[in-house]
Amino acid sequence: MTMSNGSILVVGGQIGSNGDPQPNLELLPRAVLYDPSKPVNQRMTVMANTTIARLYHSEAVLMQDGRVLISGSDPQDGKHPQEYRVEVFEPPYYLSGLPKPTFTIESKDWAYGESVTVTVTSGSTGNMRASLLGAVSSTHGNSMGQRTIFPAISCAGATCTVTAPPDNKICPPGWFQLFLLDGPTPSMSTWVRIGGDPAQLGNWPQSTSFKVPGV
Fold this sequence. Notes:
Blueprint: E1 8-10, E2 30-34, E3 44-49, E4 58-62, E5 68-72, E6 87-89, E7 102-105, E8 109-110, E9 115-122, E10 128-134, E11 137-139, E12 142-144, E13 148-149, E14 153-156, E15 159-163, E16 174-182, E17 185-186, E18 190-194
């Protein structure tokens, strides 16, 4: 799965297929982090191990604080039971001890190409970056909808301007986590919607008997 700084985390799995039950397949307990910013042949780093088999029907979701929520597993192989335990993976940037930048933002509904003002309330803006991570649906060992975009950002003092992606080919309409990164360290994310609601998914029934879910 994609991370806020552009790295990619690989967790769980087994050596073999998810076809007929094969209970003797070797598990893959080690997390591996791929960092495209590192030199070729040095981009894969082995991370922490898990003691829990994470096989078919497992999930991994990036949380707003930059950690990864790992859950599930139900391979129905006659050996590994349905898994109810939940783990949290803490990436290297989370363990660095560096302070997280913080920010405020007024506009959370962006048009394509719009310039959005962000106010940095703590952290250095000298090398500030922004990243947008698409909302995901994680199931069956895959995380669908993953997309990482690094929009243009410029700062003057504590005020930064983020330029929204230009169109729906680069950025399909939907919800994205906005992170600001001070060096390798990400902020808490804020959810923003980009490109409106062309499918009109937000057009809930206008009835006093209908309660809008999640609101």
